[in-house]
Amino acid sequence: MNRNTALTAALVASVFCMPVAADACMHVLRPREDPDVQMLRVVERDLDRQRYSNAARRVLRRFPTIHGPAVARQSAQRRNRPPTLAVSASFERGLRVVALALVRNHGHLRLRAPWSGVTQRQRDVNVAWATDVLSRQYDRTPEDPLARSQFGEALSRSATSRPAARELLEGLAVREVVPESMAWAALADLRDETGDAAGRDQALASCRRIAVQPQTCRSYLAKAHPRTERAIQIGQSRPADVAGAR
Hints:
Elements: H1 2-29, H2 35-48, H3 52-62, H4 69-77, H5 86-104, H6 120-140, H7 145-155, H8 162-175, H9 181-193, H10 197-210, H11 215-224, H12 226-233, H13 240-244
Helix pairs in contact: 2-3, 2-5, 3-5, 4-6, 5-6, 6-7, 7-8, 7-9, 8-9, 9-10, 9-11, 11-12
């Protein structure tokens, strides 16, 4: 009788304890994701969809110390040292989001000053600040195609640095490692400036192939060179990506 009682007690205990153990294992196998990483994934998708002000707003709300060139200098001081905390890596990633939002929207965001870029002077200062941020991140990882392409995209916004921008982006194109659609769009703009229509159309085609919203490729070029967009609209120049898509 004692043996049966003991056996029954053991079986009952195993039934009630197994879910607890399984639940404990699940918690071990599936750690909770850092909320900053979740937020950054969302705002990076906003960048892809040209929601630049929304992306920057969320980052600035989470990291209020991002407020201008002083942060770029702080980033420069850390550029040769790996982040010691997860929040440091998230901060740098958020800083890059704000910089790209400014570069891709020509220094203007629907936010409070100084991000608003009401005057051309303010927009130029914002783009210069963003270029400095991306330059520091490129200096830390010069062989990273993403850092190289984003820095090249920023350089393309200034007339004096456009030759350097093309050198960076053409190097990635030759190796077939251009990581983002907007880098292809910037390269299309740079090629168009020198009269390389075939090269421009090829870059636009590559942009469309990987863009979340393919129409952003043409709109990027239109903002940089309105006459090129007008030529495409009235049929004077038919981009290769249009023909290839059919």
